[in-house]
Amino acid sequence: MAEAVLEVDSLTKTFQGARNASVRAVDNVSFSVKQGEVVGLLGPNGAGKTTTIKCILGLVRQDSGSVRVFGGDLRHTYPGALRHMSAVLEGSRNLYWRLTVEENVRFFAGLNGLGLAERGSEFAQLLERFGLADKKNVEVRRLSQGMKQKTSVVCALARRTPIVFLDEPTLGLDVETSLELRDTLRSYSREEGRTVVVSSHDMDVVQQVCSRVIIMSNGRVVTDDSVAHLIDLFRTRTCTVKLGAQAGEGQQQSPQQQPPQAATSPAGGGPVEIPPELAAVLSEEFAPAEVSGSTVKVTLADSRSIYRLMDLLKAEQLPIEEIDYGAPDLEQVFLEIVRRAAAGANEGASGEATRP
Amino acid sequence: MKPGVVLRVILMRDLAMMKRYYLNTVSSLVTIYVVFLITFVGMRAFTGVATSLAGSDTLEATIVGFFVWTLTIFAYSDFSWGLINEAQTGTLEQLYLCPLGFRWIGAFTIISNLVFSLIPIFVALIAMMLTAGRWLSIDVITLVPLIVISILGAVGVGFVLGGLALVFKRVQSLFQIVQFLFIGTMTMPQRLWWARLLPVNAGFGLIRTSMIDGVRLWELPLGEVAIALLVGLAYLGIGIGVFSACERAAKSRGLLGHY
Ligand SMILES: Nc1ncnc2c1ncn2[C@@H]1O[C@H](COP(=O)(O)OP(=O)(O)OP(=O)(O)O)[C@@H](O)[C@H]1O
Ligand SMILES: [Mg+2]
Predict the structure, then answer these.
(1) At CA A93, angle to CA A92 and CA A99, rounded to 5?
(2) What is the pLDDT of residues B10-55, one digit of tens each?
(3) pTM for the whole thing?
(4) ipTM of this predicted complex?
(5) Which of A26, A51, A63, A171 to mutate to test ligand 1, by most ligand atoms within 8 A of the CB atom?
(6) Residue B16 sits at the chain A interface (C-beta within 8 Å)
(7) Which fold has domain A4-218?
(8) Fold (topology level) of A228-247+266-351
(9) Long-range contacts, A281-284 (Cβ 8 Å, 24+)
(10) Chain B: residue nearest A92 by CA?
């Protein structure tokens, strides 16, 4: 098993606002990240993603809790431990706009002690990779938003730290540029085996780039799981069954042979409708469920629920045309989790977090 | 970590910036010169202005006064202005991610500012000497150490202002006030025993002696040099202390960014 390169333990940060109003931006957050993992930090605005990242980087001082990087407690290893971490920070320029792309890369890599002599060709490769090679002598202020953002990412990567934080790397980019940047990030992080923490409120970014996602809401971690598992979990949770037309000729001609609650098929061999009695049973057993005509959408409580559903439908000899397990994207999963976390918080429950 | 690489990239950054902002450099040069010119012309009319600026009524002393005053302003204001700018644009947090720690970045930035401001200030000095038709002794071996010693105090003040800028953001108006306070602290007559304890005062006295009377470094009274050095170091220490306290406050309120 790969060892944890980053361990965050019970991190808490409260900001003192104006007139004694205080915001608990980060509330008892704990997680750890292994070597080579690409982790998404997902959450709505104000969830505490940026504050968490800045606490880890020592840019914001936490009230309590600890951060360990490669086993060393930052309280003792700071600022030397920064040789392990670089970051692109949200909303900041992260760059000198009056310097050229290449001057920026050299400068920020230099802050980590990397001289041009040993890294020159590597910088060139990075610029090439992110499509900035022909812009290297252009002042950053003359670049498009997307190019600026890419330059920030390149400057962070050029520092050659084993851990990289990217806070909202695709914020403000158009769809195409965002897709392109994600693509590069994904392939780059895979090849390099670097540990990357990407924060975003754009689920697509996390779904595409990350293998694991930590969902934050109101300063707390509400879920920490693999992206694949989360999507799986929710895919099997809802299931839509569509009924077809009655198959057997005989059955059509002798409706009296059917059980009392037989399905009624409209004339012309259209799909069978779900009888109201069955609809009532389904609504009760698989709540929340939606029954409309020949389609039923149910919620499955566990992995066995699907068999129970099939049993019920078979008992009625209903012709199943199609079963659709739905393919929720992370967005739905995310909204659902945040909704439930909020509901849980309102009831005073705190330990809603699911951990792998 | 290699501090040398960090110093080098900071120097390269500032060189590139200076090239790109050369109009700024030229215009600040011209400003220094014009202010001197006004004083120079005014001095012929009212010797009093010169007296207040140079602490003596000789033309040479006025030129030296201008020279040291300009250096002082550059030394404290470049650093704190830079800090305000970088906090606003968001590069400050990146500088804080340097594994050497921000102290070093701060020190290197000050060194770099000094290196790059010495050139235009010397150009202005030569222009002033040409205008006045008086030649002062510029003995680099004596002058450079004296400059370093005297601006230690100014750098200390720069750290204080920089720290305040981190926390309170709007301190620009303080800059102007401090700029003129420096004239007072520099030129406070040294017959008052406490005058030498003011920032830049003792160092300025030594620079005056060296430039006007052509005294070399090793010919200067050792006690005076020691006082200038100790006072400078004390201000630097106080400045760094205040800066650290402000930095802590800024980090706990999340103010290093552009918040
Ligand atoms: N320096 C600060 N001073 C006061 N409050 C702050 C500060 N920084 C953040 N906050 C507050 O802390 C909470 C968490 O903010 P944070 O920026 O960490 O959220 P986020 O998840 O990054 O949100 P976003 O998606 O908008 O970037 C918010 O309510 C924010 O207003
Ligand atoms: Mg944020």
Answers:
(1) 160
(2) 999 999 998 888 887 788 778 878 887 887 777 666 555 445 554 4
(3) 0.81
(4) 0.86
(5) A51
(6) yes
(7) Rossmann fold (3.40.50)
(8) Alpha-Beta Plaits (3.30.70)
(9) A281/A312, A282/A309, A282/A312
(10) B90
